[in-house]
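Blackboard transcription, Thursday session:
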Amino acid sequence: MVKRRQILSGSAVGIASLASGLASPALAANDPIKIGYLPALTGPSSSTGIGITRGTELAVAEINAGGGINGRPIELIIRDTQSDPTKAVNAVAELTQRQRASIIWGPLNSGEALAATPLIARNNVPMLHPCWVDELIDVKKYPMSFRNAPTNTQVGGGANHYVMDVLKLKKVAVISDTTGYGTASVNTYVPMLRAKGAEVVYSNHVDAANPDLRPELMRMQAAGAEVIMPWSVNAGFLSRILNTRGAMGWDVPVVGQTTLGSGQTRALLEKPEFWNKVYSNNFRNCCYVDGRLPASAADYVERLKRARIQFGDTLLWWVANGWDGMHIMAEALKVAGTRAQDVVAYWQQVSRRPGVYGTITWNAEQHNGFLDDEVVMCEVNSLRDGAFNLAPGY
Amino acid sequence: MLESIVSYGLAVGAVYALIGITYNVMYSASRVFSFTAGMLGMLGGVLGAVFISRMGMNAALALVLVLACGAVLGMVTEVVTVRPVLKSIEQHLYVLSTLAFALMVQQVTAIEFGTEAQPFPVLVPLEAGLPGQKFWLPLLACAVTILGLELLYRRTLIGRAFLAIAEDSYAARALGLPETRLRLACYAIAGVIGALAGFTGAQMLLAYFGNQAILNFYGFVPVALGGMGSNRGAVVGGLALGLFQQAAAVLFGGLHAAIAVFVVFIVVLLLRPEGLAGAMTGRRV
Amino acid sequence: MNGVAWLPPRLAGSMPWLALGLVALLLPLFDDAYIGVIAQRAFIYWILSAGLNLLVGFAGQIAIGWVPMLTLGAYTTAVLTAGTVTEPWNPYLALAAGGVVGAVFGVIVGLPALRLRTFYFAMTTLGFATITTQVALAWKSVTGGGVGTPGPVFPWPFEPGWGFYYLCFLLAALATWMTANIGASRYGRALIALRDAEVAAEASGIAKPRLLVLIFLLAGALGGVAGGLFASLQSYITPDAFTFEMSVLFFIAILIGGRGSILGPVLGTIILTALPEFAAPLVQWSTFLYAALLLLIVLLIPGGLAALLDFSNRRPLAKHREILPRPGLLREVLGRSPTAQHLELRGIALHFGGVRAIDGLDLDIKGGEVHGLIGPNGSGKTTTLNVISGYYRPTAGALSLDGAILATEAPPRRAAHRIARTFQTPRLIGDVSVLANVMIGGTLDGRASFVEALLTLPRHRQDEVALRRAARQALAAVGLEALAEVRADRLQHSELRFMEIARALMLHPAFLLLDEPAAGLSAEEIRRLGALIKAISREGVAVLLVEHHADLIFDICDRVTVLNLGKVLAAGTPAEIRSHREVVSAYLGA
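(Written on the board underneath:)
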């Protein structure tokens, strides 16, 4: 099912590619359908990739066990981008040109997706990814690119809604690390907050490696912040915010990025109670309400347990997103075939497709398909089996 | 705000000063600047976290073990990366050999320990409300190191031999001092000091493989400013650097602090290559 | 001999280049875009590494963080093309602007290297690499911050795909050609001399700051151009594409390839680019493996891959070699008779703290004479030479040349006054040929500018021919012509002493300062050395000879000065000195 990259000598690669170039393109009816997959499985932002890969591989296994796509198995070609955009660019060339993948799934991190998307578009290969950066979906520039996740605007909107409409707080401090994701988030959310009538008393990008965040938090406190909204996927950075808040004895709620609730962040806390009053983004379908998951997620968890897939050490919504994504691709290939235009045409009429992770609606003008009200906040200290309680107030 | 500048600035400055002394001790013994100074600092924190948090040792035992590891690594540095290239010191091959060794150790750390910064356990169980030990521990370590080195240099025979080597290794050898063994001992001492810097600074800087490059640079700045080989210069330079950096970080943000430190470093080097306090020495021909 | 850098392109030397070029030209026939992308990446990385190679491999500067030049070039090209700050530029013009920005910052980062030890420069690049990325992140209005900015798309004829491939190939070939030209020129030899024998380089008139600034400009420009291409290849650049690890890997690839070579680092860069694609499981260990390889190479074969491939220097040399100087050739070697005739030292004093190394010294060195300088250890003999050749600035007193006071100046300026010298311990460049070592001495005679050498224009080619001929003649005059092509570190100690004299002769010296040239020589060799020195002085050269061998001194010197504790104890003809009571009792010990 999964072909990992083999160790080939340079000359062997050259000959192999020459041979495949000369081979006739006629495909037997049961030849595998290739899907290229670009997770970051190693490097600093690999936890998302590891989680999504588990769901993706489970879906492929289920589909192939059920006879594949019209008799043809799915061949998932995984290329680890190592959280490095240059590796992602190399891998795109390989997947689109040499492997002739029918669809590309990923990249999963925004830094790599920003570099990979124009190249995939140049090669006219349909692409599905779960990255949040708004600029990644642009029907004119990248007509074959689709997203099965919310945009940054939706994610921030969910958090802003919780802060202002549910917690009724007005004075907000927004902080991020200096990564592409972090800076883009702050740049988008601060105007949104202001438009909603909030007073942004502090906003800054801070180097995630900065060991001492006390000056930043003191400035927030001095400015009268009633809530801290951190935007970063760096567990070390987020834990330092929480540790500093704890050490200062400042009882201020923290509302922000999903990684606030990751196991890694928890492992880095100086005291477990520093995780109280922390609310992170999550998705309605993957949250406990009164201790129970919604029906579709509960079914899915059963599936995962049957397939003996670990998910307690990652997040349920990552595993669910990978599983949803693979099924969305398989449905298009099954109904529309492998031609790029047909896949795109099929996806453009997907409407209110229910998923474990979320509901998707796409059309010719809009390749962002997530529903605003499925973006919610959860209580991070309620983490159990990779999922959380919905935050109080909903 | 001022309290944050002073407490954090002095503490991080003490760590820089200790790394600067680590550079100096190795330099005095061999005229070699070694990239392993930052590596020792990084490992002091990482090994401390491994011994205490992962293996459950008590803090005192962990400290002794960390310092022992530092001494061993110091000696390995001398034997593997310095001694073989010392005869052609003019070609500066030691820069490459020590860099290579430091990178190897760093990469093993990244793979075995992880690339995430890990918290460092609290060493001395104290009541809350007292000043944080993450601030006074590095300062204490710095003071102990300075006193220890002074005693060693002034009061012991072996310390005087170190000084003789630092002054003029040819003459020292002519006097019949066992130069090679003394150099090895100096590297062991440097290893202990570097590891101590990392261990005591880790609550603040965290146990993080990336600290190697940071400490290499910020530990070298006091040496460059204070004059190479001068421990007093390194301490003054280190504390000043810490305060300056933290003040800039608090007042203008961390990025500007990094740029400011870099600009000061370059400008001082251009205007006073021998450092603010030191004098250019060294026989060339 | 080290790789091809020192050879004029001969067929044997150009074979690897022809093979590499052919592969590069034929690669598009496979029409495999994946291989194409890897190859483009290798070309781009090499364009940066080509310049870095001159800096690291030739000049021996420890530039561990040169990726900022790539970053600067990439952002400059991308931002100008995108029109974020100005009207959109033509991508080709923007690429050139990237090169300019790279060159400017190359010099800025290099400034400390002009005056300071190697390690300081290593630290400067380390620090600069860190802040460049941080600035790229913070300067959102221009760089797009962490979200980044789209890379340039080059229009016809180098549009994305194979068109762009050829652009990268052409620029890589151009970078190779230019840096190989520099490597094989007197500039390249001067760089290696600064790396391995800085003191001797300065005594030959090589001014380190001027030369290094040129190299920083070139290396920065190539890094900037590579950056512009990199931005286009990536299609979108964010600061996290420019990792510090990348910096270290470029640096290591060059050293693994071999210092002072061009081909070695090319191979190193290709391996660096391609290996991670084909050996993915090893990727997380790649830094470790590279570092381990670097350590092994530094300790075992400092010459790198290039030295491993250098078969000509494996042949054993003849066991019993004789040095047979041919003083008859000296007239041709020294050429025109020296212009200056008389060097006067008056009241020279040099104090180190409380130590009076020289304490009021008068000395007259005249053309056509051999002047012996003797005295016990520590009496100030070598120090006197160092004052004359400009390594020390005297505390008091003056030097004058034919009556004109010499300003205090650095060794390279003294070389321009045709003051040449040898050293107590021979200063040699071990891993290049004897001929190349001797050619260093003639650096001042080159007329071609850096740009002429870069493009091998006619004047540069004439320079090279003339230098080579002169160096062979100088070697013949001292009796080493049979060893011209041998790597210098394979010579015996006595041969190195004569090689140093040959190098000094290349300066057409008016004054030749010899620091214990007979140390370590056999009696027969000392006799030949004496005859050679005598013959040199008879061509009008003023020779100042510091020596412990009393016989040699009294045989060949016209005048002798005896130093003790930094002061003149006695001066006069050999016969007078021989009978001087104090000298006999204090020094000659007869």
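Lecturer's comment: Chain C touches chain A at residues 30-38, 41, 134, 137-138, 140, 145-148, 150, 160, 233-241, 243, 274, 276-281, 283-284 (CB under 8 Å).
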